[in-house]
Amino acid sequence: MMEKKEGMSRRQFLTYTLMGTGGFLLSGMMVPMVRFAIDPVLQPKAAAADFVEVGTLDEFTTTPIKKTFTLERMDGWYLDKAKLSAYISKSEAGEILALSPICKHLGCTIAWEGGGRENKYYCPCHDGEYTPDGVNVPGTPPPLPLDEYTVEIKDNKVYLGALRQRGGA
Ligand code: FES
């Protein structure tokens, strides 16, 4: 007649020990992975600037001035520092217009009154032209007006934000 043993068998003890050790090691691996995956959600917002100061209101006139600036943006874990430029002018009514210098045809850089064009933006790649407010001149290659920066005025200073595309002429 067999005697029934009381308590835990050696097999059960080994199974529980292996499960406990495996669980402990697995959690040690999973915690950093989960933390790494959700880290951007835990970071405080607006670590990077949305608007960049480019000058004071009184330095701009109806003749566009080219300004270069650095715009910082958080892209996940990565702080992207984009070196950008804009042609900035002020209308007679005092409104600031900031245009991207990137041609809407194939992306060349335009120049104010380049190529001998008076009172126009000129793209040297395929003779593209834009009016002073950045609208593409019909009959030249660019299909759209120049992109426009979001402008904010605070304490007599001009700040530029995100670029936005404008509709066709
Ligand atoms: S890239 Fe500007 S006209 Fe073609």
Q: What would your notes on this structure say?
A:
- The chain is built from one helix and nine strands.
- It has 169 residues and is an alpha+beta fold.
- It folds into two domains: 7-43; 52-164, Rieske [2Fe-2S] iron-sulphur domain (Rieske Iron-sulfur Protein, 3-layer Sandwich), CATH 2.102.10.
- β3 (78-90) and β4 (96-99) form a beta hairpin.
- The protein is elongated and about 100 Å long.
- Bound molecules: FE2/S2 (inorganic) cluster.
- Residues 103, 105-106, 108, 123, 125-126, 128, 141-142 line the site of FE2/S2 (inorganic) cluster (FES).
Please provide a brief summary of the model.
The chain is of the alpha+beta class and 169 residues long. It has 1 helix and 9 strands; from the N terminus they run αβββββββββ. It has one helix at residues 10-42, and strands spanning 52-56, 65-75, 78-90, 96-99, 111-112, 121-123, 128-130, 148-154, 157-164.
Number of helices: 1
Helicity range? 10-25%
- Give me the CATH fold name of the largest domain: Rieske Iron-sulfur Protein
Strand order of the largest sheet: 1-9-8
DSSP strand content: 25-35%
The CATH homologous superfamily of the largest domain corresponds to Rieske [2Fe-2S] iron-sulphur domain
User: What is the architecture of the largest domain at the second tier of CATH?
Assistant: 3-layer Sandwich
Radius of gyration: 30 Å
Number of beta strands: 9
SSE pattern? HEEEEEEEEE
Structural class: alpha+beta
Hetero ligands: FE2/S2 (inorganic) cluster
Determine the N-to-C terminus distance.
100 Å
Uncertain segments are: none
- Biggest pleated sheet: 3 strands, antiparallel
Reading off the top of the CATH hierarchy, the class of the largest domain is best stated as: Mainly Beta
Our count of domains comes out at: 2
Mean pLDDT: 88
Overall shape: elongated
